[in-house]
Amino acid sequence: MRRPGDAWLRVFPGAALALFLAPIGAGLLYTWLPAFGWFPALGGDRLTLAHWREMLATPGLGDSVRLTLTSGVLATLIALVIVVGFVAAAQGTRTIARVRRFLAPLLAVPHVAVAIGLAFLIAPSGWAARLVSPWLTGWEVPPALIIVQDPYGLALTAALVIKEVPYLFLMTLAALDQTRADKRLAVARSLGYGPVTGWLKTVLPAVYGQIRLPIYAVLAFSLSVVDVALVLGPGTPPPLAVQVFRWFNDPDLTLRFVGAAGAALQLLLVAGAILAWHLCERAAMRLGRHWIAAGGRGGPAPVARAGAKTAMLAVHALSLAGLVVLAVWSLTGRWRYPDPLPASWSLDTWNRQLDNIWLTGSTTLICGLVAAGIALVLTLGCLENEQRNQARPTGRALWLLYLPLLVPQVSFLFGAQVLAVRAGLDGTWPALVWSHLLFVLPYLFLSLADAYRALDGRYPRAALCLGARPGRVFWRVKLPMLARPILFAFAVGFAVSVTQYLPTVFAGAGRFATFTTEAVAQAGGGDRRIAGVFALLQALLPLAVFAAAIALPAWLFRNRRALEG
């Protein structure tokens, strides 16, 4: 039953949509107009295709597009296969519970930290080569191998797989709870199907529909990532998103037109890839129906289980090894190849960077807390509006929520910067927080929505029957009971803010530096010690917030067993 006093809650959905749909729409408009020559501030006062021709004639553009497609599609496909294979092999066992415990730390580690850690690990002079040299390889000097920034983008693909597997795993776990996977699998086992085959035939068709949008988001991100590609991707030619970013940052302002055309091409490329993936889904569905109807009950289950578990273990091991090598390099005094460990340890690098750490750290912390805080207020308002005003979420609303994750950042952030300049907000704190909020809000909402909607409605109804007003029920019943998922969602939003590179560069106009921008800048500077310091800090700050999100409810409700978790 709707209450007249609850009508004000309907403001929250509109405000949330306006906060990220308006800049995306305006950003796309102010990007596509310069792509066709209309940008009066730079002398573009007529529509033309000349900038498209100039962009398409760029040497190596075809290789950039090929590299973008191969690395992005391959990373998404490999991550999906690892997650599906692992869940199919481990469904109903303690292994999933063990992996779930490490989910928050893996989600907290930013993409750039993973990329820099992987680069320090697998480079010809990296830690992996040092551990096996010269006793196994015979290498007294680093081999002449192109492993990092290889022309095929294999290192870039590997980093994307390592980072996207935890996200897809989290989305799959959430989908399992909504599809009664245990019951489906139990029925399949009773009919004689093996565990892996039974899961693939009965659970996967229901689960995949729930994780389709997250998969599209992973595909869009992998096709348009800039910061990870700057660290691990080839430089000549680079992936398309990096090339567009270079055009936008070139001292020659006329290249802004070419950059806008490149950004439009990037958007078309991502849209085409998502459409092609969707067509492949439909083809796989037809083939899958024939496979399911054929009735085969067995298969190479032991091999599949071993392979899936090994792949998931490798993802965890590489993430952990990357963090360890970042810490080692940040404390290194002297470390000559092929010594497996530094000859001396020192805090000199940390001491020399204290001022920079304080400046970039305060910006990162303040922006992350404010963006996550605003996103949390909007999310709670939207979810409470759903319940009080009986508003049912629709598929269209979910697509709108995923829009910032499906549209490549580089394809609209330049236009959003133009909008900020017109509004007099370019290079200000509001613009910086707003640009982060575009991506924090969707992730935070998705992290909290299921837990909020799953709260047993008998508790709020009991409080209402005892005379409590809806506002008091929200503050005194719902929030305490949902403290753990709320704090976890806040930590997810904070971690997303920490990872933002392009929004900081465009909205900050060079006036704001964060751990992420500094880590990317130092990764290409040649001093692994400084890069290790900022990449490690970039990883540790979200981890600290996640640790606080886990510890705070346990401390607050230490005397209430029902709320201890």
Automatic annotation (TrEMBL):
Subcellular location as annotated: Cell membrane
Residues passing through the membrane, by range: 12-33, 69-90, 102-123, 152-176, 213-233, 253-280, 313-337, 357-378, 399-420, 432-452, 486-510, 530-557
Superkingdom field: Bacteria
Membrane topology: Multi-pass membrane protein
Record's keyword terms, sorted: Cell membrane, Membrane, Transmembrane, Transmembrane helix, Transport
Residues spanning the signal sequence: none
Family annotation (CDD domains): TM_PBP2
PROSITE patterns listed in its UniProt record: ABC_TM1 (PS50928)
SUPFAM superfamilies: MetI-like (SSF161098)
UniProt name for this protein: ABC transporter permease
ABC transmembrane type-1 domain mapped to chain residues: 61-276, 353-549
